[in-house]
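step: validate -> pass
step: tokenize input -> pass
step: predict -> running
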Amino acid sequence: EKGKVKSTPPQKRKLKIPFRVVCVCLVIVVAVFTGIFVINRNVSEETKKDAEIIVNAFKQKDMIAITQCIYGESVAGEEIDSSKLMRALFEETDLEVVSVTKSTITYAITAADVSQVFNDWFKEEPNLDEIDDAEFVSHIAEYSKQAELKMEKVKVPYDIENNVFSAEYTSFEFLDAVTGHFLSAYEEQYTSMMDGYREALGEEDAT
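step: predict -> pass
step: emit ->
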């Protein structure tokens, strides 16, 4: 109609980004993500290599290497060789790295279950006080060979400071697992013994 002006709808403004800027941004993004991936990958690989050291030590039954991993100390071979009890407990123990995070390593630990060693032993030999060290170690070794192998997963915290790897292998949970719960069994036996000792003292005082 005459007198009316047709209104045209407002056109959407297109943001034009120079092709060069797009390329630069893409390069930066790719570089950042690639850098992060490479850094994480390298850290994980290095940490896993460190985590595998104790695994290999147990596979080879290298008591010196095991002790160095756990306590971070160099122990004389003669001292390690004299620790026949630990050799007996570690004979059936095997480790495997399951996963590695930024703060923990998860190990699958397979060991002979000796959690009932003292309870079973008392049934056969009530007077363990009369048993010498050699017989004690020999019994533990034989018990371990016949015991059921059990696997459990244990998380071990670790830290890397100044490129030096350090893991908490001295934790009770880890040591108890690699010894087939011998530590738990010994702790239970010791507590029971002390309770009996206190009870005996109480009876003496009462009389």
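step: describe -> Confidence is low (pLDDT under 50) at residues 12-17, 19-42.
step: cleanup -> pass
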